[in-house]
Design goal:
This protein is an alpha/beta fold. The protein has 16 helices and 21 strands. The strands form 5 sheets. Strands 1, 2, 6, 7, 8, 9 and 16 form a 7-stranded mixed β-sheet that branches. β1, α1 and β2 form a beta-alpha-beta unit. It is globular, with a radius of gyration of 23 Å. It binds flavin-adenine dinucleotide. Flavin-adenine dinucleotide (FAD) binds next to α1, α4, β7, β14 and α11.
Length: about 600
């Protein structure tokens, strides 16, 4: 093996968003050496974009809240195919993780008596989201970075990991390249934590940043770990639909939490037209009750705009399909109407939703304090990811851990808003803790030279080819395929067509050519990302075909009902020995009686 820059750490964390930073802090606190690698600059991870808040049953605004209600809300939202152990740990530990963040310097919005303020969000029975205006992710990243920086963590910024390195069935390191100079790097580690975020860039319309190309999902899959729940992609109901250049950018659920309402072009609050059975008793019977709920009236039930994201997205699609959509293909989201109810409404909106105000003013020349927004569904989050043990976050491959959006289990078929940021803290901490334990118990593995040689060869292949395919064009074609054929509404025929298309795109990706050299070369970066996008797209499609029912993020027009047999299984994806993608149904372990009882009691 030629001499590549080599680093050795007990624990290597790949990803510096909320999950990666929290894992790195915990591993470092356990006394092991920690390396943290990220594709972008430190502080620029996707978590920084998070808006609405962190879900934790602190009960500061409504003392009826507790971990049991949060657990039950999360399971109902996930339509009971969640990893119940993760949902339990998450609900129990999120409050401590939020208080810890506060102790490390996070400045949350406050109640009048000085406690952390909490806001309403879809699917949460009580106001539960600790927040900082609509810039919560920024505060979270800032705090974790400030805290982590003093712990002696080695940070490798703007470095993309392309391959995990195995030794006798255990992960012992990673290979990557510097984005700026193209230089290769080898990382030796006793344990590796994946915290690489999501896959949104597989779709044309998305709220996700350029980083979300399914890298961690693919790294784990290629190394031999299992993925789970890949069919469950979350389409957030409210992305911007206009102007075209910003289509997909998120409009936080916080707008609806603060009293924003959805209307069609006939001026009708269409969300009242279809309230799913399990939520009927918890939903306001009229507009008046819904408004009172958003203003903190404990006797009121939530407005239907705050039903779960999967349902709200489908209602919006229905309105558009049936001809009641706006000129730019969305529906109206109106927060300006609250001027009928409260004095100084414009100031109130600007204070509660400063980013939304600026986003629309700057990008669409629209003042949300006076005018309704046009919104529609946007690809936002993937519930599926690396299959992990709920307590330790170790994947099915020894030495490999995963946390945050690239791991799966806690959310089941649909994630409740705010449950991601708390997931990052709870399971980031657990991943760091258990990776450190693993590192202490296991020595450094051997990195076979041939693995590194192969990784180098794969990375440089796009330069070696003569002429051929353009990586950007292939990425766009893939995004069209996923958007049109494996989107919000799915059918077997269309998904089979998508599989065919993905297969052809895979073949064509073998002929991708890039020119120039390895110094910052976006064409080269895209050609390497493309492999990851193709892998996760195939995984989503195969899993979605296997689940012959509709549940949460997966809506099958050909199987519109929930089926009991699918309520008992998760779909897993694994690379077979012959290199093909293997799909299987695995039974969900039986839930302990005490947890079943909680769900029954909460109704
Ligand atoms: C606009 C928006 C608003 C949101 N608001 C909320 C909210 O209010 N509440 C909530 O709970 N959730 C929210 N979410 C979801 C939430 O922000 C994300 O799910 C969460 O931040 C993901 O965090 P993470 O730590 O898993 O990954 P990220 O924060 O995405 O971090 C991923 C890290 O991995 C690195 N990386 C990726 N691939 C590689 C590679 N190959 N090599 C090296 N490094 C790599 C990246 O550089 C980055 O550092 C929102 C999402 C969006 C898009």
């Amino acid at each position: 093996m030629p001499d590549y820059e080599t680093h050795e750490h007990d624990v290597l964390v790949i990803g510096a968003g909320g999950a990666g930073l929290r894992a790195a802090i915990e591993a470092s606190a356990a006394g092991v050496s920690v390396g943290l690698v990220c594709k972008s600059l430190l502080g620029k991870a996707h978590t920084v974009m998070a808006e609405g808040g962190i879900a934790a049953a602190l009960a500061n605004v409504d003392d009826r809240d507790n971990w049991r209600v949060h657990f039950s809300d999360t399971m109902r939202g996930g339509q009971y195919v969640n990893n119940w152990r993760m949902a339990e740990l998450h609900a129990k530990e999120a409050p401590d993780r939020v208080r810890e963040l506060e102790a490390w310097g996070a400045l949350f919005d406050r109640t009048t008596d000085g406690r952390i303020l909490q806001r309403n969000f879809g699917g949460h029975r009580y106001p539960r989201l600790a927040h900082v205006g609509d810039r919560t992710g920024l505060e979270m990243i800032r705090t974790l970075q400030d805290h982590g920086i003093h712990m002696g963590i080695d940070v490798h910024m703007e470095c993309t990991i392309t391959t995990l390195l195995n030794d006798e069935g255990r992960v012992v390191g990673a290979f990557g390249y510097e984005r700026e100079r193209g230089r290769f790097k080898v990382f030796r580690a006793k344990a590796v934590v994946l915290a690489t975020g999501g896959i949104g860039r597989a779709y044309k319309i998305t709220s996700n940043s350029w980083e979300y190309t399914g890298d961690g999902h693919t790294l784990a899959y290629e190394a031999g770990a299992e993925l789970i729940d890949m069919e469950f992609v979350q389409f957030h109901p409210t992305g911007m639909v206009w102007p075209p250049s910003v289509r997909g950018i998120l409009v936080t659920e916080g707008v609806r939490g603060e009293g924003g309402v959805l209307k069609n072009t006939q001026g009708r609050r269409f969300m009242f037209d279809d309230i799913p059975g399990p939520y009927r008793t918890q939903t306001a019977s009229d507009e008046e009750e819904g408004w009172r709920y958003t203003q903190g009236d404990k006797s009121a039930r939530r407005p239907p705009e705050l039903l779960t994201r999967d349902h709200v997205s489908r209602c919006i699609v229905r309105e558009i399909k049936e001809g009641r959509g706006t000129p730019h293909g969305g529906v109206y989201l109106d927060i300006s109407w609250i001027k009928q109810r409260i004095p100084n409404a414009a100031e109130h909106i600007k204070k509660k939703l400063p980013s939304m105000y600026h986003q629309f003013k700057q990008l669409a020349d629209l003042d949300i304090t006076t005018t309704p927004m046009e919104v529609g569904p946007t690809t936002h989050y993937i519930m599926g990811g690396v299959r992990v043990n709920g307590d330790t976050q170790m994947s099915t491959l020894p030495g490999l851990f995963a946390a945050g959006e690239c791991a799966a289990g806690i959310n089941g078929a649909n994630r409740l808003g705010g449950n991601s940021l708390s997931d990052l803290l709870v399971f980031g901490k657990r991943a760091g803790e258990h990776a450190a334990i693993y590192a202490k118990e296991n020595g450094v593995g051997t990195i076979d030279d041939s693995l590194v040689d192969q990784a180098v060869k794969n990375a440089l292949a796009p330069f070696e080819r003569e002429g051929g395919e353009n990586p950007f064009a292939l990425q766009h074609e893939l995004q069209d395929t996923m958007q049109n054929l494996v989107g919000i509404v799915r059918t077997e025929n269309e998904m089979q067509q998508a599989l065919g298309d993905i297969g052809k795109l895979k073949e064509r990706s073998e002929h991708v050519h890039v020119s120039g050299n390895i110094d910052f070369n976006p064409g080269w970066h895209t050609s390497l990302d493309l492999n990851n996008l193709l892998t996760v797209s195939e995984a989503i499609t195969r899993a979605a075909i296997e689940r012959k029912e509709s549940r949460g993020g997966q809506y099958r027009e050909d199987y519109p009902q929930k089926e009991a047999e699918f309520g008992k299984v998760n779909i897993t994806i694994k690379k077979a020995d012959d290199g093909s993608m293997q799909v299987a149904r695995v039974p969900i372990p039986e839930m302990p009686e005490e947890l079943k009882q909680i769900i029954e009691e909460m109704g």
